[in-house]
Amino acid sequence: MEDKIALVVGVTGITGSSVADSLIKKGWKTYGLSRNPNISIESLIPVAANLLDEADLQKALAEVKPSHVYLSTWMRHATEAENIKVNSSMVKNLLNTLSPHKSIRHVALVTGLKHYLGPFDDYAKGASPLTPFREDHPRLDTPNFYYAQEDEVYAAAARDGFTWSIHRPHTVIGKAVGNLMNMGTTLAVYASICKEKGQAFTWPGSEAQWEGISDMTDANVLADQLIWASTTQAAQNKAFNITNGDIFRWKWMWEQIANYFGLEIQGYTGENKSLEQQMAGDEEVWNDIASKYNLKENNLSKLASAWHTDLDLSRPIEIMTDMSLSRKLGFTTYKPTLDSFIELFEDLRADKLIP
User: Start and end of every PRISE-like Rossmann-fold domain (predicted)?
Assistant: First the structure.
């Protein structure tokens, strides 16, 4: 077990919680780091620390000597320059703090498709790689906090001698309350509001997304790849795309989600109908729904991240990624994306987060 000591950074998030749960089920001693790591994962060892405070990190991690580090955390700021400064500092501070222990064998970093599409400031603007996106495509000629995070991992690996892997999921579907990028829960909340108000489940995005091919990433599929890459010699020092393995068109998926909630749909009608605008002013509606159905969370902003769902669904191009690299090396996990949505909706209902 000395070789199976994990530190999951961002453990309260969609990805972090799934990775921690998977590691513990596989018998790993698992630490979970976040500012407020009090989550209900049995056998998780919580570590409360601020990644931007080196003194706080040194105190919190003084006795933590992980063999494997799984990084899945970020902070959103108004400009990409700020994103780069803050998010690269978090990675650098963590790896600098752990460096004296000389215990790390592998670091796995989760980024995403903004590697190919550009940062929030220039998201999906200008020239983008042809789909499906492939890992060997060179970086875009624009500042990007994903690149800065990668560079901190590469520098620490060269200094300390550990291996690394980079993981680029499409939109991640999984359960976490208060997550900044949470399409699955956002759509479940939006659908619940539509049902309560007696209105159609209205497509908020672009024609390209409505008509085009897409894919997504289940949090548990991502967790499987993270653990596989960190323990498979052939996967060391490589970047991997990671999706469920199937493809779909949103004009089909939107109807499947609507059917689950018993809703009529309104598809693309010639203009984007921003979800953020559609849900503006629904805080009171959600508060009433939470009271009516005795839900655990009446704060709409802690469940729904409409801005992020709009960002994904308004893209002017279809989005799909190539999975050949990890498939060739032996990673075979597959999951139909509709199952990811339905399982999430069932979990949300069981946990009294939606009606």
Answer: 54-355
One-letter amino acid of 238: K
Instruction: Decide if 208 contacts 316 (C-beta within 8 A).
Output: yes
Q: Give the CATH fold of the 5-169 domain.
A: Rossmann fold (3.40.50)
Locate the DSSP E strands across 105-230: 106-110, 163-169, 172-173, 201-202, 213-214, 217-218
157-160: long-range pairs with CB below 8 Å, 24+: 157/107, 157/237, 159/99, 160/95, 160/99, 160/102, 160/104
Residues 244 and 80: their CA atoms lie apart, in Å, by 29
pLDDT at 37: 81
Q: Six-digit token pair at 264?
A: 């009529």
Q: Which residues does the annotation mark as catalytic? A: 114, 146
pTM: 0.95
Band the pLDDT of 176: cuts 50, 70, 90: confident
Region(s) of the chain under CATH 3.40.50.720: 5-169
